[in-house]
Design goal:
Layout lengths: L2 E5 L2 E6 L14 E4 L26 E4 L12 E6 L1 H10 L4 H7 L2 E6 L6 E12 L4 E8 L1
Parallel strand pairs: 4-6
Antiparallel strand pairs: 1-2, 2-3, 5-8, 6-7, 7-8
């Protein structure tokens, strides 16, 4: 059971289909009426918490955002990228950075310490700083 909702037919449990081929597909959840099939009598609880689960679809850019709790309330995000992070961002845009910029192609900015914390973004600008020898990226929030 991953949640519940109220419909015109009454309260419904939202169940994650553990036999699904893609467990990150939120649309694959199954809705079953409360008390139907005696579902409350036998519930399998998760072994861990959901902080390491992705709640949004990728592609992802992983950055350690654990020290800044309010980052999702900002209007955008600017950050110097490591080589690994730059390659991850490049992989998110197979058509290239110019196409991604022109189309405001989505990338999910994801806290590398808690995958459940993410924000949909688009590429606003990127540049290379010759002093620090790092790529800098500015992302706008969608």
């Amino acid at each position: 059971i991953v949640g519940w909702k109220l419909t015109a037919f009454g309260e419904m449990w939202l169940l994650q289909n553990l036999c699904a081929t893609n467990l990150h597909d939120i649309d694959a959840n199954i809705s079953i009426g409360v008390s139907q099939f005696f579902i409350e009598d036998e519930v399998i609880a998760p072994l861990g918490n959901f902080e390491e689960k992705y709640w949004q679809r990728g592609p992802y850019l992983h950055i350690d955002l654990s020290r800044c709790r309010e980052w999702r309330t900002w209007t955008g995000f600017t950050h110097k990228l490591s080589d690994i992070q730059f390659k991850e961002l490049a992989a998110a845009y197979p058509g290239g950075f110019i196409e991604a910029y022109n189309n405001k192609t989505k990338v999910e900015l994801c806290n590398s310490k808690k995958h459940c914390e993410s924000k949909a973004c688009y590429l606003k600008e990127f540049s290379y700083d010759t002093t620090s020898k790092m790529w800098s990226v500015e992302l706008g929030y969608l």
